[in-house]
Design a protein that fits this description.
About 45% of the residues lie in helices and about 15% in strands. The protein has about 250 residues and is α/β, with parallel strands linked by helices. Helix 1 runs parallel beside helix 2, helix 1 packs parallel to helix 10 and helix 5 crosses helix 7. The N and C termini lie close together (about 5 Å). The structure holds 1,3-dihydroxyacetonephosphate. The site of 1,3-dihydroxyacetonephosphate (13P) has 14 residues, from strand 8.
């Protein structure tokens, strides 16, 4: 089995000192684990992250958003090329918090992914349904629509992205999709990717939404769950490392 990808999304938490301590703690505990790992920091901390991660490849740096524009008069925006200057390997795009609080639409999210790819940064594109959409039986329709926009804009480059399935109702709520519920949606996404590229099996599809040390193993054991995008639990070194250990166990058990 390919190594799982475990990504921490620190969102707008902590301080510079707290971030530095987190990175150092994760780096120290990561040694010997069979896992790909990354942390997505607030943009203002990317320079510090670059320095802390220099000279090693066990933990990669990531950002939480990127502009859909290449360059120009877009006050407050950060371009993909700028992220690249700080050795950013991954960038989260289309997180449900961006869609919900900043009105991001599927087409913008797809453009952001395209900008990231052009600059050599791997986009982690989030899809997921709200509670109302799930209760209305619209989960598949919603995630397929979100992924279709991405495929439409990015064409064969779709094989270079990472997808994250994050049911909105499971984010920060303590509610997790059951492993079976998550696997079902991941399978739908995999089939859609297979229709678009011959390399769909190589695309990592991460699960996100209240993943923690206790539930990580059973989620990560599902056939189409290739890793996790972790919010709250990635802010505590022992919890984050426990998730990585579960991922490492899966890679070794296969
Ligand atoms: P939680 O793990 O806190 O539910 O957050 C998930 C998430 O939004 C990661 O991007």
């Amino acid at each position: 089995m390919k190594q799982k990808l475990i990504v921490g999304n620190w969102k707008m938490n902590g301080s510079l000192a707290a971030h530095q301590a987190l990175v150092q703690g994760v780096l120290a505990g990561l040694q010997g684990l069979h896992v790909q790992a990354a942390v997505c920091a607030p943009a203002v901390y990317l320079a510090s992250l670059q320095t802390l991660l220099q000279g090693q490849t066990a933990l990669m740096g990531g950002a939480q958003d990127v502009s859909m524009h290449e360059v120009g008069a877009f006050t407050g925006e950060i371009s993909a090329a700028m992220l690249r200057e700080f050795a950013v390997r991954y960038v989260i795009v289309g997180h449900s918090e961006r869609r919900q609080y900043h009105g991001e639409q599927d087409a913008q999210v797809a453009l952001k992914a395209q900008r990231a790819l052009s600059a050599g940064v791997t986009p982690i594109v989030c899809v997921g349904e709200t509670l109302a959409e799930r209760q209305a039986g619209r989960t598949e329709e919603v995630v397929k629509r979100q992924l279709a926009a991405l495929i439409h804009t990015n064409g064969h480059c779709i094989s270079e992205i990472v997808v994250a399935y994050e049911p909105v109702w499971a984010i920060g709520t303590g509610l997790t999709a059951t492993p079976e519920e998550a696997q079902q949606v991941h399978h739908v996404l995999r089939q859609q990717l297979k229709a678009a590229t011959a390399h769909a099996d190589a695309i990592s599809i991460l699960y996100g939404g209240s993943m923690n040390a206790a539930n990580a193993l059973t989620l990560l054991q599902q056939a189409d769950i290739d890793g996790g995008l972790i919010g709250g639990a990635s802010l505590k070194v022992p919890d984050f490392l426990a998730i990585m250990a579960a991922a490492s166990h899966c890679a070794q058990a296969s």
